[in-house]
Amino acid sequence: MVGWGTASRGLRALHAVGRQRSIVAGLFVVLMISGFVFLFWPIDRPGAASVPSPAPSSPLAPVPSGTPPAIAVPTAVPGETDMAALSSPVDLSPTRDFRALAVEAARGIYTWDSRSSSYSDVYARVRSWWELLPDGSNPLSVLVKEFEATGVTPTSFASLGQQSARRSAKAQSVRCDLELSKVQEFPPPWAGLHVCTVIVQVLDETSRDRNTYSAPITVMLNCPPAATAPADRCAMVAFYATADRIVY
User: Fold this and answer.
1) Distance between CA atoms of 188 and 102, rounded to whole angstroms?
2) Which residues contact 122 (CB under 8 A, 6 or more apart)?
3) What is the tally of structural domains in the chain?
4) How confident is the model over 29-38, as pLDDT tens digits?
């Protein structure tokens, strides 16, 4: 009986040890599962970079049928677009508005570009505006002298061409007929002959330099009802750029 009691106590001790080991193993498994859950659970951690979600796009307004697509308009650079437009070749438009024609002629006389035109081209354009009168009072010799008074000669133009020179102008003011004191003293000899003095702002440019100045030019225009004028328009019959011929 004693042996069996001792054996029974030994068995109970073994069972107790087994239960303790099972408990320890169970706790180890629970700790392992908890560790995996902590590592891989999707929570925000300090220091993690957060990416903002894109803002919802606004619904597009319906476009009416037949509406043309929008066209991007380039932004103009102040001061450049205006002078670039002025530097384009000028041609006189047929008109009976002698003031407008005087402004257009004055601007055209002071507009040329040696990069695209020769002296002959520039002179021929201005010559085409100068309409000779039957009485011979406006010979082409006067045209040559007055055109050279603007600072352009065959020799100077050749030199300016080597510098990519160009000239442009815009009108600052125009005064015609009785607005000019000299015309009040010496009126034109016939009806339809008008005298206008235009002040132009001139821009001279080369590949290395640019210069701006004001210049007066007097333009003579022959308009209906003058018998020597075209029937439906005015014509430029003279201009003066020399200082002693300007009409004020």
Assistant:
1) 16
2) 112, 152, 157
3) 1
4) 445 544 443 4
Print the domain residue range for 100: 96-245
**Which strands form 235-240's sheet, in the order they lie side by side?**
112-113, 166-176, 193-205, 210-222, 235-240
The candidate with the shortest Cα–Cα distance to 221, out of 96, 125, 111, 79, is: 96
54 vs 241: CA distance, rounded Å:
69
Strand pairing report for 193-205 and 210-222: antiparallel
Share of the chain above pLDDT 70, in %: 64
CATH of the domain at 200: 3.10.450
Rounded to two decimals, what is the model's pTM?
Answer: 0.65
Question: Nearest CA to 188 among 133, 146, 144?
Answer: 133
Partners of 112 in the beta sheet?
A: 167
Identify whether 188 is part of a domain: yes
CA atoms within 13 A on the CB side of 133: 22
- Domain contains 4: no
- State how far the Cα of 176 lies from the Cα of 195, in Å rounded to an integer: 6
pLDDT tens readout for residues 8-27: 444 344 445 455 555 545 55
Phi/psi region, residue 17 (left: phi>0; alpha: psi -120 to 50; beta: rest), is: alpha
* Residue 17 in domain: no
Q: Is residue 30 part of a domain?
A: no
Q: Which structure tokens are listed for 148?
A: 């050279």
